[in-house]
């Protein structure tokens, strides 16, 4: 029985994948409902979902809560070592970028952030939470944690702009080197809601610590990317001076 289900799921998988590859199912288009697909392939919902979940894991389709399944747009190519800004990076690939500020606050640093930013326990940090979209689709939720002594009154500024440019213009601070930790994680409810994902969906988390031109630690970013929205591409010879922010 298991072998039969697997074979049926593979047939559905290849049929849908072929239509995506040849453009019959266009980028961003909505698939038929699960009921309609089950009837089309004369199969059960269980078998159908086996095929859909495989495609979702590979990033060729995605689902949105209470809306259904969609064909995934092309992945954004993201090189953390280049000096492009987020909007510049997106637009250079023929896409449209949008940044929304979700919240701002000044709060106690967690033990993890104390280590990342080399600050004492019970230190206060500015926190900026933003949602970033490509072609109208939310693809990344980011938390920026800043040392307040470097950025007085920054929370009063227009934070839909690039933080990199704000640092330069208002504080004469230029971003230098950065360190990165990149690993998979699962979407907690708050992040999943902003990215239109079911809770527990796979995400790619990038934790970046940024330094200024004098080698001092400035901030720490925690980026939560939809796993199907980005492709990390790095060249060891790439010279960099700024972050994507």
From TrEMBL:
Keywords: DNA-binding, Transcription, Transcription regulation. It comes from Pseudomonas fluorescens. It holds the Pfam family UTRA. Residues 6-74 form the HTH gntR-type domain. CDD domains: WHTH_GntR (cd07377). SUPFAM superfamilies: Chorismate lyase-like (SSF64288), Winged helix' DNA-binding domain (SSF46785). Coiled coil: none annotated. One of its GO terms (molecular function) is DNA binding. This is Transcriptional regulator of 2-aminoethylphosphonate degradation operons. GO terms for biological process: negative regulation of DNA-templated transcription.
């Amino acid at each position: 029985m298991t072998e039969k289900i697997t074979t049926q799921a593979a047939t559905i998988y290849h049929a849908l994948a072929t239509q995506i590859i040849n453009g019959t199912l266009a980028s961003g288009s909505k698939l038929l409902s699960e009921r309609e697909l089950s009837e089309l392939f004369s199969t059960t919902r269980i078998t159908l979902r086996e095929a859909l979940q495989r495609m979702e894991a590979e990033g060729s389709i995605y689902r949105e809560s209470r809306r259904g399944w969609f064909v995934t747009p092309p992945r954004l190519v993201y090189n953390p070592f280049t000096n492009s800004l987020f909007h510049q990076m997106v637009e250079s690939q023929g896409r449209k970028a949008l940044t929304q500020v979700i919240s701002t606050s000044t709060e106690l640093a967690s033990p993890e952030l104390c280590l990342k930013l080399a600050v004492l326990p019970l230190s206060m940090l500015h926190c900026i939470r933003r949602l970033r979209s490509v072609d109208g689709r939310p693809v990344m939720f980011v938390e920026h944690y800043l040392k307040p002594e470097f950025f007085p009154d920054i929370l009063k500024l227009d934070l839909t702009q690039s933080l990199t440019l704000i640092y330069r213009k208002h504080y004469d601070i230029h971003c230098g080197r950065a360190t990165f930790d990149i690993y998979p994680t699962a979407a907690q409810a708050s992040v999943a809601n902003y990215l239109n994902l079911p809770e527990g969906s796979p995400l790619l988390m990038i934790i970046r610590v940024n330094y200024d031109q004098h080698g001092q630690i400035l901030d720490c970013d925690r980026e939560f990317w939809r796993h199907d929205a980005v492709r990390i591409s790095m060249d060891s010879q790439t010279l960099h001076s700024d972050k994507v922010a």
